[in-house]
Design a protein that fits this description.
The complex is a heterodimer of chains A (302) and B (233). Chain A is mostly helical. Chain A has helices spanning 10-41, 48-65, 72-96, 104-126, 152-174, 176-186, 188-193, 198-220, 230-245, 250-270, 276-289, and strands spanning 142-145, 148-151. In chain A, helix 9 crosses helix 10. The longest helix of chain A is centred in the first third of the chain and has 32 residues, at 10-41. Chain A is globular. Chain A starts with 9 loop residues before the first helix and ends in a 13-residue tail after the last helix. The model of chain A has no long low-confidence stretch (mean pLDDT 91). Chain B is α/β, with parallel strands linked by helices and 233 residues long. Chain B has a domain at 1-70 and 186-233: P-loop containing nucleotide triphosphate hydrolases (Rossmann fold, 3-Layer(aba) Sandwich), CATH 3.40.50.300. Chain B is 36% helix and 26% strand. Chain B has helices spanning 41-48, 71-77, 94-100, 113-119, 121-125, 136-148, 166-181, 193-199, 217-222, 225-231; strands at residues 3-12, 15-25, 30-34, 56-61, 64-65, 79-82, 154-158, 185-189, 202-207, 210-216. In chain B, strands 6-7-8-3-9-10 form a 6-stranded mixed beta sheet, with helices on both faces. The longest helix of chain B has 16 residues, at 166-181. Chain B starts with a strand and ends with a helix. The model of chain B has no long low-confidence stretch (mean pLDDT 94). Classes of the chains: A mainly alpha (302), B alpha/beta (233). At the A-B interface, helix 6 and helix 7 of A face helix 2 and helix 3 of B.
Chain lengths: 302, 233
């Protein structure tokens, strides 16, 4: 029988809600890149969790290079995520470009192969043991939320998520790159016909998605453990977020991440060992009632 | 001669559609491909702009051999294409559809959103509307406007009148005539004979992937057997 007394404690509820929101921000960062890449390139990138993992390891290692200077964390976050974006650029142009015209199953196999390759490379480079990064001094403490401690760093993550969402929205709505991205999601052949090099656009989109994943990894480095296996852990939940929210919809991805985050945070109170069940049940219900996701639209692909 | 295509052989997979098609267009002319459904008009146009590269043959545009070039390079070379189904970017607004197609060319005569709106005033009123919610006629105007944004020297239109009400076709005809008067070179495929003959200097008749007739509108009208044999349904 689950212990329900915790529900009487407002401080606990508030912190649990904030924990759910924090997780939602990570899920949003990963899933938004996943959704963007699927929306434009039409490829379901199984290796997106691997990019997240790579972001965590890269940021961790870069931070360890310069011990001392106060800006270490920030430099590592920026360089680590850019490094992942560059890796993404190579992945897209070498491994994905040849399979765009192939069947989806073949594309999925290629990205799954990348999961295995990156996983082994990470074990080669960093070993199999867990690691954990350190928080920047500025965000090392905790704050009091209705009588409970909540890490300051997590508040920072809570601020980064909406900022990234806003920046992405502005990028997609207000820039020529964003217009091209949305146009390519509608009809990639016509984007070429109006004079745009679609190959370059695809590489750019994949790099942006990889950067988002890398940023998520870099942000996660100081909180959770960094370990080989964090790639698969995050990709499963990211897929669920995208399925629930609606493939290709930025708003849907945000909504999906918020729902899954809360479901995890509170589900764990009822069934500590089976909280993930709620998430799967939600996904199943959404798939039955709205197969295209909460904010997605029925797909008519040309 | 701004466009010269010779001996085009094009196939989709194993099914061969074009058997040695040749088409030429002179600067400032309007040229029309005629023929029944499925004779290879669209395939000819797609071959020219690289959407379906020909297996054999040559496409020379303004002295440059552009055979088999990727569509974006053909576009940058100065050929714009308005496909049969318009194929607008449905999630983008009218203005965004135009802006997406904007190319770097600057100058007084360059096409921009404002000039497209002057040419097609209806589009200005629909500025923020999603292209997916436009009527057929509005879509066609926008599709032509989008093509013009690339400052083309050759405008290719695939069945521009298809699916449009007669009054809308009349308006479209006037727009194309105005573009021509402005010096635009036009190549189109069209089933609407009245529209085609009203706008063109020269016509080609295609049948089963072959060119059966090439000549001026006057020559075409003089030979009444052509209509019965290749165009009558």
């Amino acid at each position: 029988m689950p212990d329900l007394s915790a529900f009487a404690d407002p401080g606990f509820l508030a912190v649990q809600c904030l924990n759910g929101l924090t997780q939602a921000m990570f899920l949003f960062l990963i899933a938004s890149g996943l959704s963007l890449i699927f929306g434009v390139l039409g490829v379901l990138n199984f290796a997106h969790g691997s990019l997240y993992m790579l972001g965590a390891y890269l940021s961790y290692t870069i931070a360890s290079w310069f011990v001392g200077p106060p800006a270490t964390f920030w430099v590592a976050l920026v360089l680590g995520s850019i490094g992942v974006a560059l890796v993404g650029g190579i992945i897209e142009s070498v491994f994905l470009r040849p399979v765009y015209r192939r069947e989806e199953l073949e594309q999925l196999l290629v990205t799954y192969a990348l999961v295995l390759i990156i996983s082994d490379l990470v074990k080669l480079a960093w070993g199999a043991e867990n690691r954990s990064g350190s928080r920047p001094a500025l965000l090392a403490g905790s704050v009091d939320i209705a009588g409970r401690d909540f890490p300051t760093y997590n508040l920072f993550v809570l601020a980064v998520g909406p900022l990234v969402a806003l920046a992405l929205w502005l990028l997609l709505r207000r820039t020529q790159f964003g217009r091209l991205v949305r146009a390519a999601a509608n009809d990639r052949e016509m984007v070429g016909v109006v004079g745009v090099n679609v190959k370059g656009l695809f590489t750019g989109v994949f790099m942006l998605g990889a950067w988002l994943g890398g940023l998520g990894g870099g942000l996660a480095a100081p909180i959770g453990a960094i370990f080989p296996g964090m790639d698969v852990e995050i990709i499963v939940e990211s897929f669920i977020v995208v399925v629930v929210g609606g493939m290709g919809s930025l708003g849907g991805t945000l909504l999906g991440a918020l729902i899954i985050g809360q479901l995890n945070a509170f589900g764990i109170l009822f069934f500590p060992r089976f909280a993930i069940v709620f998430v799967y049940v939600l996904m199943a219900v959404v798939l039955v009632i709205r197969p295209w996701g909460l904010l997605g639209r029925p797909v008519t692909r040309g | 001669m701004i466009l010269e295509a010779r001996d085009l052989y094009t196939a989709y997979g194993l099914s061969q559609v074009l058997f040695g098609v040749a088409v030429t267009v002179d600067v400032g002319q309007a040229v029309c491909l005629l023929g029944r459904n499925g004779v290879g008009k669209t395939t000819t146009l797609r071959s020219l702009i690289g959407l379906t590269p020909p297996r054999a043959g040559h496409v020379v545009f303004d002295g440059m051999d552009i055979t088999g070039w990727a569509p974006y390079r053909v576009a940058r070379q100065g050929i714009a294409f308005v496909p049969q189904e318009r194929r607008l970017f449905g999630d983008l607004s009218v203005r965004e559809n135009l802006e997406v197609a904007r190319r770097g060319t600057r100058g007084a005569s360059a096409w921009g959103v404002e000039r497209v709106y002057e040419t097609f005033p209806i589009l200005e009123q629909l500025d923020a509307r999603r292209a997916g919610y436009l009527s057929g006629g509005e879509q066609q105007m926008l599709a032509i406007g989008r093509a013009l944004m690339g400052n083309p020297r050759l405008l290719i239109l695939d069945e521009p009148s298809e699916g449009l009400a007669p009054l809308v076709v009349d308006a479209l005809c006037e727009h194309i005539r105005a573009l021509k008067a402005d010096g635009m070179t036009i190549l189109m495929a069209e089933q609407n004979l009245t529209l085609a003959l009203a706008l063109s200097e020269r016509v080609y008749i295609l049948d089963k992937g072959h060119v059966r007739f090439a000549g001026t509108v006057a020559e075409f009208e003089a030979d009444t057997t052509l209509r019965d044999e290749y165009l009558a349904v």
